[in-house]
Specification:
Layout (H helix, E strand, L loop, with lengths): L12 H19 L2 H4 L2 H37 L1 H6 L2 H29 L8 H5 L2 H31 E2 L7 E5 L7 H7 L1 H11 L4 E5 L2 H10 L2 E5 L2 E2 L2 E4 L2 E3 L1 H5 L9 E4 L8 H7 L4 E3 L7 H10 L1 H16 L1
Parallel strand pairs: 1-3, 2-3, 2-4, 4-8, 8-9
Antiparallel strand pairs: 5-6, 6-7
Length: about 325
């Protein structure tokens, strides 16, 4: 960071607020306010906010590329992935990158609040390029577009899934690691929930956090069950330990269970045991490490078709 500190406490509070708004996601708003945007102080921070926001989008793009790379490595190059602890190193680097951006953002907001037009290394260089500023504005608009699509979808997805005691037909049992909100899993299950409602009626989808009780209920009541969980060859990783095929086999079952999807890594090591535990259902397991990305893809683009096929086969058999 360099340059002369040109703090000016006579800068009107309206201009300071607009500058802070620009850094806080209001870049597209200021793009529609040319009269205010042409004022020297607002123009300075409008340009700098574009640079700061652009750096955020670049960081998000890098993070997405890293996560996809990690998914590829753990699926196709397991030995070096585990030997060199690639995930730990790459995620640590990502955390530091976002921490640096957060410090930069806070510094820029403080300068705007104080009425300062001090230059900031790298940010000032980027701020002087009109093409990059336009890109920042367009990316911000695109981000808001995504939010406008995701928020209603998440709300609707949450209304389609239940967690009460009434039985359902399609179950999604998930592990949130005490970190991820329930609506995120409802959104991941959204296409399948829509298909379940069409095939079995409203209230047919049940969303439950992982526990032995949830596994027992899904096995006893469900037709189509997805386990979005972590694990190893031993079984599904529960907060209190492990849920093994032997544990599941001891739980009461039902002839209506037709399909079970086990997302946990190396579940295929006990494929025969899992098939016996969830009999008579068809059980999907993995003989390797499995990536979250591939499970999301399956849930959104393949699972609804699988549910339709199984339902059609059941109706044909009953006829």
């Amino acid at each position: 960071m360099h340059g002369k500190n040109s703090s000016n406490y006579q800068i009107p509070w309206q201009e300071r607020c607009l500058a802070v708004i620009a850094y806080s996601g209001g870049l597209p708003l200021l793009a529609l306010m040319p009269r205010w945007r042409k004022r020297p102080f607002v123009a300075h921070h409008y340009n700098h906010a574009g640079a700061v926001i652009l750096l955020l989008f670049i960081s998000v793009g890098i993070a997405a590329a890293v996560l996809l790379t990690l998914s590829y490595l753990l699926v196709f190059h397991r030995v070096p992935y585990e030997r060199f602890h690639i995930e730990i190193h790459m995620l640590s680097t990502l955390r530091k990158m976002f921490l640096c951006w957060a410090v930069l953002w806070v510094f820029a907001v403080v300068l705007a609040t104080l009425g300062s037009t001090r230059h900031v290394l790298l940010v000032t260089r980027l701020a002087g390029k009109s093409g990059l500023l336009r890109a920042a504005v367009l990316l911000s608009v695109a981000a808001y577009g995504v939010l406008l699509a995701v928020i209603p979808a998440a709300v609707h997805a949450t209304t389609l899934v239940r967690s009460d005691t009434a039985p359902g037909s399609v179950y999604f049992v998930y592990e949130d690691l005490d970190t991820f909100p329930r609506w995120l899993f409802a959104l991941g299950f959204y296409p399948l929930s829509l298909e379940a409602r069409r095939l079995y009626g409203p209230g047919s989808t049940v969303l439950l956090p992982l526990s032995p009780q949830a596994v027992a209920r899904a096995k006893r009541e469900g037709r189509f069950v997805v386990f979005g969980v972590h694990g190893r060859p031993r079984g599904m990783a529960d907060r209190s330990g492990w849920i093994t095929p032997q544990d599941v086999q001891a739980m009461p079952g039902s002839d209506r269970l037709q399909f079970v999807y086990l997302s946990n890594c190396d579940s295929g090591a006990q494929r025969a045991e899992w098939e016996k535990a969830f009999a008579p259902a068809r059980v999907v397991t993995f003989d390797r490490l499995s990536a979250v990305v591939e499970h999301i893809w399956w849930l959104w683009f393949r699972a609804p078709a699988v549910l339709r096929k199984i339902t059609a086969e059941t109706k044909k058999h009953e006829e």
